[in-house]
Design brief:
Chain A: One of its GO terms (molecular function) is phosphate transmembrane transporter activity. Chain A: This is Phosphate transport system permease protein PstA. The complex is a heterodimer. Chain A is mainly α. Chain A has one domain: MetI-like fold (Orthogonal Bundle). Chain A contains 13 helices and no strands. In chain A, helix 4 packs parallel to helix 7 and helix 5 packs across helix 7. The longest helix of chain A is centred in the first third of the chain and has 37 residues. By secondary structure, chain B is an alpha/beta fold. Chain B has one domain: Rossmann fold. Chain B is 34% helix and 23% strand. Chain B is built from eleven helices and ten strands. In chain B, strand 4 and strand 5 form a beta hairpin. Chain B is globular and about 55 Å long. Classes of the chains: A mainly alpha, B alpha/beta.
Chain lengths: 294, 261
């Protein structure tokens, strides 16, 4: 009788497995490496500038910076005008975009397959692809030229709100789609009128999803520079008047970049902006993980 | 064809020559159904999938009107009041509904789920009224002892069977005349099913119950009267006992003996 032996090749297979695993880990490390390097570089170069006055004082002028540099001191002042400006512009943009975005999202969810809602969905998708500088130009024509008659925070907010809209619309629609239809039925069977079903059942049940969408869209626009250059211009002082030119952190970064005496401030401002955006992202991840339905 | 209909004195619901199509000129999902529903009893609607039993049930509280092109002919009288002449808000307070899958509101606590009908309709209740409605409704569905410690926790943490009883409590909170149940136990395990069935038998002392079920043995166990529907028609309507022991129509007999369905 012939005895067949089964060749034990488990060692060879294990080696192959390990090699493949090694390659996968290597390439995934390669993808996250730039992020680690960017954050590392910003921290190393920027952390020295960050102190209390960085948050409370306005940006220095070029003379102050030059003197400080000549004396070997850290550049005085901070980016308070940029931080307050960014907060003002982004808050106003959110106030404009959130109601429109959510209402449109609810409409798309409520009328699936209708020609008009498909059209709106497509337009929202196209809007997402419009280059931000083009939006800046358009808003410059609409708001700066005809409404505020000067560069203004309002104009910046409008351009950023238009950028937020498609993100909020789609995230609202997608979030509502995840709610089981049985929930709506339950409310209908209790005789609840249509508008109250939307306001008091659908939107509360999808609250965390809506909030996540809003936070993500805010973090997306926080770093926008191009449309703000054409709409809010910048302001060396802290400004809370929405009809006046206003500064913003990304605008300040651009300004520092263009001034050889203030290049050092780029790093601290970028570190701040990056930290802010990352924090928003982490918060929105936490929220969506904590409150997901089912 | 409706010569088998049992005489019902003083019916709660009287469905008169009801026909429903999902599209104008389309096929009728419910054809010329006339039925009187007995007060304080369980009436089961049986039939194979797609026979129109759910459509008929939903026509009673006008949930079928959610479909935009629906065509409804005929009449439904609730205690001699025309259902189609009433506001849906008023109607749905008088006719409660429970669905196949338990659907408590995930954002609300157990107590708020019970009084959801009041809350969502903006009806203000005094604290004492609230507590009373919550307690009696939960006692009615035998859930009170299980949840009295956790009234302010979210209803979604309950088991499937408990959630379904919570949904029944939500329907009871309005003290409705009729409770409609659309296959209420099909998503539940056998133990939870048995509890819900016991509960329905208990509830029929005070409420009229109309129950759609796929499950023939369930209909045999708990219903007093039964309808058998086939292809939109009401084939037979009789006392459950009579229908199961001595069906008059060959189609009913075929279904009950498992020849189709």
């Amino acid at each position: 009788m012939k005895v067949t032996t089964i060749r034990d090749n488990s060692n060879a297979r294990n080696t192959k497995n390990n090699i493949f695993l090694g390659v996968v880990i290597f390439f995934s490390l390669l993808t996250v490496l730039p992020i680690i390097l960017i954050v590392g570089e910003l921290v190393v170069k920027g952390i020295g500038q960050i102190n209390l006055s960085f948050f409370t004082e306005i940006a220095p002028d070029t003379l102050q910076a030059m003197v400080a540099k000549a004396n070997g001191e850290t550049i005085p002042g901070g980016i308070a005008n940029g931080i307050t400006g960014s907060l003002l512009i982004v808050a106003l943009a959110a106030v404009i975009a959130i109601p429109f975005g959510i209402i449109t999202g609810v409409y798309l969810y409520e009328t699936p397959g209708k020609r008009y809602s498909n059209l709106i969905r497509d337009i929202a998708d196209v809007l997402q692809g419009v280059p931000s500088i083009v939006l800046g130009l358009i808003v410059y024509l609409w708001v700066v030229k005809h409404i505020t008659h000067s560069y203004s925070a309002l104009a910046g907010s409008v351009s950023l709100a238009i950028m937020m809209l498609p993100l909020i619309i789609r995230s609202t629609e997608e979030t509502l789609k995840m709610i089981p239809g049985t929930l709506k039925e339950a409310a209908v069977a209790l005789g609840v009128p249509y508008h109250k079903i939307i306001l008091r059942v659908l939107i509360p049940s999808s609250f965390s999803g809506l909030l996540t969408g809003i936070l993500i869209s805010i973090s997306r626009i926080l770093g926008e520079t191009a449309p703000l250059m054409l709409t809010t211009l910048g302001n060396p002082r802290i400004n809370w008047d929405i009809t006046h030119p206003t500064s913003a952190v990304p605008l300040l970064i651009w300004q520092f970049y263009n001034d050889p005496n203030m290049v050092e401030l780029i790093w601290s401002s970028s570190l701040f902006l990056m930290g802010f955006v990352l924090t928003l992202n982490i918060i929105s991840k936490r929220i969506s993980a904590k409150h997901s339905i089912n | 064809m409706n010569e088998n209909i049992t005489e019902v004195k003083n019916p709660v619901l009287s469905i008169q020559d009801l026909s429903i199509a999902y599209d104008k000129g389309g096929k009728y999902a419910v054809k010329n159904v006339s039925v009187d529903v007995k007060r304080d009893a369980i009436t089961a609607i049986m039939g194979p999938s797609g026979c129109g039993k759910s459509t008929l049930l939903r026509a009673i509280n006008r949930m079928h009107e959610l479909y935009p092109n629906i065509v409804t002919e005929g009449k439904i009288m609730l205690n001699d009041e025309d259902v189609y002449g009433m506001s849906t808000i008023k109607l749905r307070r008088k006719i409660g509904m429970v669905f196949q899958r338990p659907n408590p509101f995930p954002t609300m606590s157990i107590a708020d789920n019970v009084i959801a009908g009041y809350k969502l309709n903006g009806i203000r209740l005094k604290k004492s009224e609230k507590e009373e409605i919550v307690e009696t409704s939960l006692r009615d569905v035998a859930l009170w002892d299980e949840v009295r410690e956790s009234l302010f926790k979210k209803g979604t943490f309950l088991s499937g069977g408990q959630q379904q009883r919570l949904c029944i409590a939500r329907a009871l909170a309005f003290k409705p005349d009729v409770i409609l149940l659309d296959e209420p136990t099909s998503a539940l395990d056998p133990v939870a099913t048995a509890r819900v069935e016991d509960l329905l038998v208990e509830l029929k002392k005070n409420y009229t119950i109309v129950l759609v079920t796929h499950n023939m043995s369930q209909a045999a166990r708990i219903s007093d009267n039964a309808m058998f529907m086939y292809l939109g028609e009401l084939v037979e309507y009789d006392k459950t006992k009579t229908m199961f022991t001595n069906p008059k129509d060959p189609r009913t007999e075929g279904y009950l003996t498992g020849k189709f369905g």
